[in-house]
Amino acid sequence: MAQNLNLVNAVAAKRLVAGLLDIVPVLLATMIYFSATSSTMSWASYLTTGELLAETATASMSLSVFVLAYAVVVWGWEAGTGKTLGNVALGLRTTDEDGFAPGWGKVFIRRALVWVAGILPVVGPVIMLLSNLWDPNHQRQGWHDKAARTLVVDVNQGRNPLLTGGLFGPSAFAPGGVTAPGQPGHPDYGSGQAVWPALAQDPAGGPITGVPGINQQGAGADPTTGEPAPTPTLPAPAAAPSTAPAAVPAGQPAAAQAAPEAPLPPAPHQEVAGVDEDEAEYTQLRSAAVAQTVRGARLRFDDGQVMVLDSTALVGRNPAAQDGEGVAELFNYADMGRSVSKTHLHLAADSSGVWVTDRNSTNGSGIAGADGVRKSLAAGKSQHAEYGETVYFGDRYFVVSPA
Questions:
Q1: What are the pLDDT digits (tens) for 260-273?
Q2: Total Cβ atoms within 10 A of residue 61
Q3: What 3-state DSSP class applies to 119?
Q4: pTM of the prediction?
Q5: Nearest to 393 by CA among 314, 337, 340
Q6: What is the DSSP secondary-structure string of 223-237?
Q7: How far is CA 341 from CA 155, 362, 389, in A?
């Protein structure tokens, strides 16, 4: 089985070739039938009419029995295991919409529709087998799949749901029951090619609650709400001793009484408890730089898709902005395993990466650096993914690089 724990949709070309391979035994049997019939006809002058009819009927019956037996065997094989000759040769599997064995009824419907399409010889079945090309839902289903409520997955490129807990794996088949990504017992835990690296402790001081970047609401706005990002306020320094002059004796001119005080000397440097001065200064400088320029980022997803982000975006299976929320782009990400929520992430580009906010997703999100250690994202809290880091959402991920 492939190491990739994601589900991969079978492309149209493989579906077509697999369908053609499935009928090869029938074509061979038909060729043998015609060869036998031709041989019988060559002896027609030496046979009586009854003998000729008997020979022809026997050959026809043999062909019919073989085709019927083959159809039933393949029907049951696909119904119970998702396999056919073509599927095995191309590394495909037929499943129901939950990633399990499709069953006799669903297989009958999808195959019957392909045979019905044969009303248009050759062209009809080919169009039916390629009909997933016109499926707006990321080419997941052909017309016969939609009617039968089935899927076709590529187990050479991705996970085999029939052996790994269905569409909602991989945690569903972990030893000891359902576990979350990054937990012991989850299939990717501790492996050299883990989809979810081990969890790290939250950084001291808690998660980032404001994004010092820019979005459509203007510089310094939080991309999750559109409100201005909060800026840290330092406690006021201790009051310096008063330098006001002594009281003016009675009788002095009023101007002397109202004379301005001498300017205070600069306050001495003080350490403020709980605030890293270097970090605060870096944040302020970085905020100013971001306000001047946003270079954007290139996001390369695990399925090969590339997205160039220069503003804000929502990522999910069917993302939608909230009422009054200004988002520049909606990125509809096809995830057959449904580990990705409909609206999973909010992204906001800045000059050195992307601010990532988990939108209360079901399966969580995280960011991993070059060391492979993942920091989980608290829902609604923004964290920054630098160039070169990997952002995980559900069982999927993308790598951030300069645009």
A1: 445 544 444 444 44
A2: 10
A3: helix
A4: 0.54
A5: 340
A6: TTTSSBPP---PPPP
A7: 23, 6, 22
